Amino acid sequence: MDFTEEHMSSFFNRIDRLNSTLTPLFGKMNVHQMVCHCTDFFRMAKGTKTSREYGRVNTKELIELAKLGKTTPAPKGFGQVEGEGTAPTNLEKDLRTLKEHILEFSNFKNDFDFAEHPYFGKIDQERWTKLAVYHLNHHLSQFGV
Question: How many CB atoms lie within 10 A of CB 99?
Answer without folding.
Answer: 17
